[in-house]
Amino acid sequence: MHRLAALAAVLAVLLMGVACAQSSGPYVYAVDSINPQLPSTDRAVNLETPQASIETFLAAAQREDWVRAAQALELSYLPEAEQERLGPVLAEQLHLVIERAILLDWATLPDRPDARAVRTSGNDPVAGEERRSLRLALVTLPDRPVAIRLARLQIEGEDPVWVFPRQTTENIPDLYAHFAPGPIERALPSALRQQAFWTLSWWEVIALPLLLLAAFGLAALAYWAMSKAAAGVGEVALIPWIVRAVRTPAALLVFAAAFSVAQAVAFTFSNTVNSVIDPITTAAVVLAAAALVVSIMDAVIERVSNTEGSDPTQPDAEADRAYYTTLSAVRRFFLVLMLLVGTAFVLLQSNLDQTLGLSLLGSAGAIGLVLAFAAREALGNIMASLQIAFAKTARIGDAVIFEGELAYVEKIGFTHVRLRTWDDRRLMAPVLNFVGETFENWTKTDSSMSKYVLLTLDHRANVEALRHEWSRFVEGEEEVIELDEAKVQVVGHSRDGMEVRFLFKAPDPSTAWDIHCRGREAMLHAASRLDEGTEDRPAFLPREREVMVAKTA
Question: Where would you find the membrane-spanning parts of this chain (predicted)?
């Protein structure tokens, strides 16, 4: 019994030691003192949890009680004589930085002393763990990124508190210098610097539309100037083609650049405005730069194509078809590469993880599914387009049979292939149809093609006489090639008559179609002429058809 009692006592001591270690061990930063020279305040200061500390700091800042707000800052790196003087100043500066650089996510800000992440998934490495440091944001300065954190400090014998640690407060002057009001904002009347609605000041409500109008005016002026410059140069030169092609992307680039410069030099907007404007401005600059490069490429390609004056649909234009298709493939590959690089640049530069947009998107699961589905379709079309272009299953200028129509490939885009039919109609065929379905390409390896005329004639028709007529016809056609392949064959029969095929070879599909039509007309005329006469002569046209026509007449 004595042994059991001793063992129980030992276990109890061990458990008490573990509990004490968990409560005050590795989950706090032990300090000797926290801001001992800051003057006391008559208002309560609640720093028990991360959320309570932020609420206390913002509430004090709202009343401009900077002494109370400074209680949430660790100032131990300052001489004690300077804490009382600099504490309120640093608190005021930090408040401005938070307004203009951070978008606080209250849903993820713990309201527990141990800062356990109770709302994260079980796969999160910090789920259910106590923490002694939280990163609120990562602010990018011109020379380096700066983390704004909360840390859990404890003086021996006292309850731990959450404050902005030394690593953050030491960087407040640099942060404030970057986000401080510009000269124009400082010159504004105090009434315009007051809050209007939401988190916007009156001067922001007024300045935003004016900046947009000014940037739009500069973009319109740039577009007009480029149009006038292009009109003043001869049409033969390459420069006007390029200038006209880049007018729109250049105007967009001027618009985004003018707004960004004005925002950086003259105005410093709040984080609510920046969280919306910065991603849009960055995306506009990247989009304009990409469109600028692509427009120059298109202008050069179009100009070179028009200068050479070649027609890739011609039978002897095999090299042109490969050349234009390769150019088109390189253009699309380069465009996809710029899209990927530009998207990555926008995501990195815009800090979307700290903006309102990504939070809204993350909470809208249905929207995420729709975007994912749309991205899958778009990516499938892009990959199919590149596959066609590089594999050259269909080249620009190729003659193809699509849904029973003879057409020529005019353009291979990201989503559609543009086809020109023999009667100058334009068919827009989905790119995926040329990857997942079978189609005929009549000029893949050789433009020449064999074609035939098929007629149904009477069983008593003299095939040898028709063979003689067909020989006369093909010998009179200069565009028929390889005359020894021109044949007349009986390929089938039925109760209505026998099927006779008149075969020939032409240099290209378009010529083959013309000869096909003329050959049909010639053979029908020959059969009708040979069929005339008495009944004892061989019949060529089916008699049943003649009887039916006579009865109808």
Answer: 202-225, 246-268, 280-301, 333-350, 356-375
CA angle 530, 532, 537 (to 5 degrees): 75
Same domain, 465 and 513: yes
Q: Which of 215, 218, 208, 354 is nearest to 279 (CA)?
A: 354
H and E: helices and strands count for the chain? 17, 14
| 454 and 437 in a common domain | no
Instruction: Assess if residue 525 is contained within a domain.
Output: yes
- Is 8 among the domain residues? no
Here the CATH number for the domain that contains residue 475 is 3.30.70.100
As to burial, measured by CB atoms within 10 angstroms (0-12 exposed, 13-18 middle, 19+ buried), residue 85 is: exposed
pTM over 0.85, yes/no:
no
Cα–Cα dist 98/148, whole Å: 9
Residue 17 lies in a domain: no
Provide the token pair at 351.
């800090």
Q: Which amino acid is at 177?
A: A
Amino acid (1-letter code) at residue 340? L
Q: How many residues does the chain have?
A: 553
Domain interval for residue 437? 399-441
For the chain, the domain total comes to 4
Residue whose structure tokens are 């699509």: 402
Residue 437 phi, psi (nearest 5): -130, 160
- 4 lies in some domain: no
Q: Are 88 and 159 within one domain?
A: yes
